[in-house]
Amino acid sequence: MDIQGEMEIGSIMNYFHNLKEIYERRMSECDKKAKSDKIRCMFDFLYDLTKIQDVVNIRIMKAIDNEQDPRWIPIHIIDNANAIILGISRNIGDPKTIVEEGYVEDKLKRLESRFDWIKMIYKK
Q1: Under 8 Å CB-to-CB from 64, ≥6 apart: which residues?
Q2: How crowded is residue 43: how many other Cβ atoms within 10 Å of its Cβ?
Q3: What's the predicted TM-score (pTM) here?
């Protein structure tokens, strides 16, 4: 693992250690804002939380590192789901921007495609 990865993991561990306090502080900060700023604040927090999920998921992907492992496709579904949340929260839920950007649509198609693979392989 490189230094950046170690720093990222260190900050994640710190983050989880204080997650309840961080959640309460961030939501309290958001609650004090006017409606549009409050919504942006909550989307920013959702983005931050999803980035943490994404880092953990990437570590799982690296640990599996085998396309023959039955968890390979599901872990990529999580990757796409995180990407969808990141794309929507980065754009503060603005449908016009989300559609114009195309990122979320691409990830939705990939998610659906990967789930179709699972159904094809494991459906009885």
Answers
A1: 71, 72, 75
A2: 18
A3: 0.77
